[in-house]
Automatic annotation (TrEMBL):
The chain crosses the membrane at residues 28-44, 56-73, 85-105, 112-133, 139-160, 165-184, 196-215, 227-246, 252-268. SUPFAM superfamilies: Multidrug resistance efflux transporter EmrE. The lineage of its organism: Bacteria, Bacillati, Actinomycetota, Actinomycetes, Kitasatosporales. Keywords: Cell membrane, Membrane, Transmembrane, Transmembrane helix. Belongs to the EamA transporter family. This is EamA domain-containing protein.
Length: 296
């Protein structure tokens, strides 16, 4: 339920982000947002990073690189495609996540996970698409979705046995630096120009970044990456609902999309638990050690 709350925060701050990036460049906004987030976590636990060994720091940096690539590539893609298409293509991380688990980590995934993943894609399409053509913007955004899936899978693999708080601090610092570098060609405008922009940076930096990523990383100790990915598809659902409250109109097709995404989440949640699947996969099934199962 905490992850549902996180996606609610991400979705509900979409309007705030839209307003902020009209006042300053996207890369500058992200640099400021992640700097605020990292500083907040450091102030609360100044010795947190010391809890990580060298391997933990390296992994935190790698996760930060994947997350920074997600934000930068999405920004590039938005210059060549609409925000609705970007939302759908970015949401394809829900497909890449189980594929990475299956292909690169050789994890067995259940039919519940694949069914939930498929439903989530259909729901995202109904919620966001109004025509679709594959071009440069869509291709770049697809790479963005793959990077986000890498971040989700990497977090699930590397957080076990480590302090999730410390891992997040390193990750956010990395994103802050890389987004700052990405903002240089545009003039390095990383300082919010007015009070409204500052409010956007502080709100998203504290709630939608510092708190949200600590919760996500903590949750991934207990929940598989595939389940996390499906739950995260609720973000555009909450964004649509908040938009409706702000005066946007939702079509019947979009409402069906909302229902389908919710059904996908419940399908995965009602499937066999991660713990049960891991226990079942421990039974001998040929040469070599058994591989843990992931997802529903």
């Amino acid at each position: 339920m905490l992850m549902v709350g996180v996606t609610a925060v991400w979705g509900s701050t979409f309007v705030v982000i839209q307003d902020s990036v009209e006042r300053m460049p996207v890369t500058g906004f992200n640099a400021a947002r992640f700097t605020v987030a990292a500083l907040v976590l450091i102030v609360l636990r100044p010795r947190a990073v010391l809890a990580l060994d060298r391997g933990g720091v390296v992994r935190g940096v790698l996760l930060g690189v994947a997350l920074a690539a997600t934000y930068v590539l999405q920004s590039v893609g938005l210059q060549h495609t609409s925000s609705t298409i970007s939302a759908f293509v970015t949401g394809m991380f829900v497909v890449f996540t189980p594929l990475i688990m299956a292909v690169f980590l050789r994890r067995r995934l259940t039919r519940w996970v694949w069914a939930g993943t498929g439903l989530a894609v259909v729901g995202l399409g109904l919620l966001t698409l109004r025509g679709f053509a594959v071009g440069f913007g869509e291709a770049v955004t697809l790479v963005c979705a793959f990077c986000l899936a890498l971040q989700i899978v990497g977090t699930g693999e590397w957080v076990v046995g480590r302090d999730p708080y410390a891992l997040v601090v390193v990750q956010l610092l990395t994103v802050s630096v890389l987004c700052g570098v990405a903002s240089v060609p545009g003039g390095f405008e990383v300082v919010p120009p007015d009070g409204a922009a500052w409010a956007g940076v502080l709100l998203t930096g504290v709630l939608a970044t510092a708190v949200a990523f600590v919760v996500q990383t903590w949750a991934q100790i207990r929940i598989s990456a595939t389940r996390i990915a499906v739950v995260m598809t609720l973000e555009p659902v909450f964004a649509a609902l908040v938009g409706r409250l702000a005066g946007d109109r939702l079509t019947w097709v979009q409402l069906v999309g909302v229902a389908v995404v919710l059904a996908a989440m419940y399908l995965v949640e009602l499937g066999p638990s991660d713990r049960a699947e891991q226990h079942a996969s421990a039974a001998p099934s040929g040469a070599g050690p058994p591989r843990p199962a992931e997802g529903g």
